[in-house]
Specification:
This protein is an alpha+beta fold. It has 17 helices and 27 strands. 29% of the residues lie in helices and 28% in strands. Bound molecules: zinc ion. Zinc ion is lined by residues 296, 330, 334, 364, 367.
């Protein structure tokens, strides 16, 4: 049961003034924010020799698995005691300040940068964990980049008193109250505060219910395009698929916080049909540094998406809604793992000296695997799309440096080199591991139980408040899964470095796996070995220009024709009924050639095909 917000709030504010609890006053400025943190509580404070205590901003935050060093973006750090007297401050490393004086500090003040707007080369912060502050457009308040803490102060309740420009609205899953030009937000602890980012801007919001969960979408689009209604339409279908997959959603509210960057200029260069070399270099330089994607929290997730305009040649994958959908189910499923099933290192997260858990196969691998399965079982992906996606993950996952370290070793050391570079494999190899584990559970239990049942049983056993034993978790998992050979699977392939047994496991869900496979495709009419012509590479490899045409040219191409590679790829993929529609730039204008399709068989590793209909149908349907 929840108390009415106002009473809860008054209670907290009253106790805050009586016992000097933690209160942050935050005000958004043109390119940053000012923070005043009142309330000092540091169990390790040393009062014997004058006074000394240490204030920190996080080195990293849960879910990012990377060194972030938010303290680098703090300036003008000062501390005063109860009489307003300035205390001695000494910066220690990237993230800490040692404060000394004859009395305890009561208030620290500092300025935080709008981190997304800075050029950062080393340890750049992934945008969904970063901050953006603009007093005209809005603010993305990811707590790690805003709120600090005294050593040991992470447990007590906190209040944020946030300056709210007229007409703006603070979207968050935190409880709160807006009054005049301030919004008050309350959190049960520093952990809870960092787990609940805030999007502060003019309202562009939408909401809907998924079973017992109220879903809210809030958008900050930097060029002002309203998007919440579009996002809602697309997300509702995915969330309905989630509802069918999960017996009960373990949260009563969930907030999608989305920021959309303006990259229409890049879209104009790339998809105008005639990109310039200089333009492409500019795009590559600018985009290579952008972290499009999302970060999960217990009852919300933050998205950083790019608006590449609406050029007719823009690939479907770059539509803003598509970018959101690619991440949304994955982020939402994090409410199960790691948020509801995790190791002590995540539960009692140490922001100053974090230790990493070895179970990334579970936190990211299982989550990504479920995201794909949910969309397939919910009819959001066709069988072909699902199998292609999983084949792609097998293929990418094979690039994991198994000869150097195992998946658990990578996970434990993910903040350091060379392990950090292998982190991305949690989404491919990690998801494939989960697939093979699911197949074995289904095989052993005659399809009566599957991986989600095991995970939900463990979720009930542990849950958000009770971490599992880091070292003993493989055993705990196997005990619930009741699947012969599963412990050995973890030993050999997750803790060990052996090659994954695709064929053996996937057979149990009715799939035939072949290491070497082939596919029949529409022949490439620009391949000089297969057509009577000569071509030259154009636009930094993004195009081909026809230089010579012989008597046996069969596609209707002429000298001077230019074909964009992305058009060629989509035309070959979409070729049907003997005709391939190939867009060509000819004499300055765009024409679409109707090319008669010739097929060819090309080799392709990791072939997946359905070999047992009954098993595969059972896998494809959520009972
Ligand atoms: Zn994730």
């Amino acid at each position: 049961m929840k108390q009415p917000i106002l009473f809860a709030l008054l209670g907290l504010l009253a106790s805050a003034s009586a016992t000097a609890q933690s209160v942050y006053l935050v005000d958004i400025k043109a390119d940053g924010a000012t923070v005043e943190h009142r309330g000092f509580a540091a169990p390790d404070a040393n009062l014997s020799d004058g006074f000394a205590a240490t204030y920190h901003l996080p080195k990293t935050v849960p879910g990012t698995y990377a060194t972030l060093d938010y303290g680098r973006f703090v300036t003008d750090f000062t501390a005063v005691d109860a009489e307003g007297k300035a205390l001695k401050v000494k910066k220690k490393g990237n993230n800490s300040w040692e404060v000394r004086g004859s009395a305890a500090p009561v208030t620290v003040r500092y300025t935080v940068a709008s981190i997304m707007e800075l050029k950062v080369k080393k340890d750049k912060i992934f945008e969904p964990a970063s901050t953006y502050h603009d007093d005209q457009k809005g603010s993305v308040l990811n707590g790690g980049g805003v709120y600090g803490f005294w050593t040991g102060q992470e447990r007590g309740p906190v209040t944020v008193d946030l300056g709210t420009p007229k007409g703006w609205f603070a979207a968050t899953s935190l409880e709160g109250e807006a009054l005049g030009d301030r919004t008050t937000l309350v959190a049960s602890s520093y952990h809870a505060l960092l787990d609940n980012p805030v999007l502060l801007t003019k309202p562009d919001t939408a909401g809907f219910w998924v079973a017992n969960t109220r879903v809210t979408i809030a958008v900050l689009d930097l060029n002002g395009t309203p998007r919440a209604a579009d996002f809602k339409r697309e997300l509702e279908a995915d969330m309905a698929a989630v509802e069918r997959f999960l017996p009960q959603l373990p949260v009563d509210r969930y907030t999608f916080l989305t920021m959309v960057g303006d990259f229409r200029w890049a879209g104009d260069i790339l998809f105008s049909g005639k990109p310039s070399v200089g333009g492409i270099i500019k795009v590559v330089r600018s985009l290579s540094n952008q972290g499009f994607g999302a970060l999960e929290h217990n009852t919300s997730s933050v998205y950083y998406l790019g608006d590449f305009g609406s050029g007719e040649r823009m690939p479907e994958d770059l539509r803003v809604e598509k970018q959101l959908l690619d991440a949304a189910v994955h982020e939402f499923m994090h409410i199960i793992t790691p948020l509801g099933l995790h190791a002590p290192a995540i539960h009692d997260f140490d922001y100053a000296n974090p230790t990493m858990s070895q179970h990334l196969w579970l936190y990211e691998g299982v989550t990504e695997y479920f995201a794909q399965l949910i969309r397939y079982q919910g009819g959001r992906l066709t069988q072909q799309e699902y199998l292609d996606a999983m084949r792609g993950k097998i293929s990418q996952g094979e690039k994991f440096p198994n000869n150097k370290f195992s998946f658990t070793e990578m996970s434990r050391n993910v903040l350091d080199k060379p392990y950090a570079e292998a982190y991305m494999h949690v989404y491919d190899r990690g998801a494939v591991m989960a697939w093979l584990i699911d197949a074995q559970i289904r095989g052993a239990q005659q399809g009566q139980r599957s991986l989600i049942d095991v995970i939900m049983a463990l979720h009930t056993q542990y849950g958000p408040e009770r971490p599992f034993d880091e070292a003993g978790f493989f055993d705990a998992f196997c005990e619930v899964a009741e699947t012969p050979g599963l412990r050995e699977f973890f030993t050999k392939y997750v803790e060990g470095r052996e090659a994954l047994p695709y064929a053996e496991a996937l057979k149990l869900i009715g799939l035939d796996y072949q290491a070497k496979g082939s596919e029949v495709k529409a022949m490439n009419p620009l391949d000089a070995a297969k057509n009577d012509l000569k071509v030259k590479v154009s636009n930094l490899g993004m195009g081909r220009v026809v230089k010579k045409v012989g008597p046996n040219e069969w596609a209707g191409l002429k000298v001077g024709d230019e074909v964009a590679m992305q058009d060629l790829v989509s035309a070959r993929d979409a070729a049907v009924d003997g005709i391939m529609k190939l867009p060509v730039t000819r004499g300055g204008s765009r024409v679409v050639l109707e090319v008669p399709v010739k097929t060819e068989t090309i080799s392709r590793p990791h072939q997946l095909s359905v070999a047992n209909d009954a098993l595969w149908t059972a896998f494809s349907t959520r009972p």
